Amino acid sequence: MRLDLVPRGQRSPWAEALSPTLAFLAAVLIGGDAVSAMGVSPGAAFAAYFIAPLSEAWSLQEVAIKAAPLALIATGLAFCYRANLWNIGAEGQFVVGGLAGGMVAIATHGSTGTTVWILPTMLVTGTLAGLAYAMIPAILRVKLGVSEILTSLMLVYVAELLLDYMARGPLRDPAGFNFPQSVSFDPAARLPYLWEGDTLHAGVLLALVATVLAVVVLGRSLFGFEMRVVGASPRAARFAGFSEERLTLLAFAISGGAAGLAGIVEVAGRIGQLQPTISPGYGFTAIIVAFLGRLSPVGILVAAFVIAVTTIGGEAAQIDLRLPLDLTRAFQGLLLGLVLGADVLTRFKVRLVPGAAR
């Protein structure tokens, strides 16, 4: 006996709309059983993970600040994944973007006179640095046929080691008591806060703008149509005259640029200086966000918010309930698996086929 997946002739719009919600509820139930096995009340864990982050103004701001880089990176990744290209190295592009943009802030530290150009230059530099770094696996795939999965992933470690070296060496603050960090950025090199006295900065607005642009490009442009055709049927795309090489370069450029922008947003926003580590794993978590959002810009924005809520809630649960932080990561992975499984069941029928006797 074997199980076969048979495409459904007609997909139910209600099933497709409800499947992520049902997958989320299933993940909560499974997570509740795991928490209960650890001797913690599932109700208390649910409140810590999902209610507490939404109950106060400061925690809502933290959720938005966490969600912004995730949404930026995942929106860029959606361009690659829709075209059946696998950029796994957004973490490295994020780091390179933060490093390059941060170097502009360090080079202009203490500048006098007109400084309004510094922050825009940092944002552009970070975006271009992430774009250039993403071009390495893209060009290797196009010209030499090298797997972009391996090259983009291995380049993550190169970027992280480069940032570590620069923060501990050439860019270290000489007056910083030998701590491995750069000088603190001047106010002109920091993203402005949306409200005085709060922590919410303008990087959140950049994530919203990126979502709107992605909706227009993917849904209303020839490039978005070309991407869908190449991803669904490369052979049909070749017959239509679409260039797979050109699409690969453009998709990686958009993906890397978005990750680089997210990197400098994080550095110029929350951190305010260069350190040996500037990312808690945003580039890898954004892969989960992209697929939770079904590669849709609006869905990605919602998924980024959900993942940010669970991340902030996981930190609270670690402090208040003594639950391990790895439980949060396990829950996020479980949620991704259940959402993908639900998508499969809405698009295919499971058929039991008698196997040949052996």
UniProtKB/TrEMBL annotation:
Q: Which residues cross the membrane?
A: 63-81, 93-111, 117-136, 148-167, 200-225, 246-265, 285-309
> Which superkingdom heads the taxonomic lineage of this protein's source?
Bacteria
Keywords per UniProt = Cell membrane, Membrane, Transmembrane, Transmembrane helix
Tell me which Pfam families the record gives.
Answer: BPD_transp_2
Which InterPro entries does UniProt cross-reference here? ABC_transp_permease
Topology term for the membrane: Multi-pass membrane protein
Please state where this protein is localized: Cell membrane
Q: What is this protein called?
A: ABC transporter permease
Name the species this protein comes from: Methylobacterium komagatae
Q: The organism's lineage?
A: Bacteria, Pseudomonadati, Pseudomonadota, Alphaproteobacteria, Hyphomicrobiales
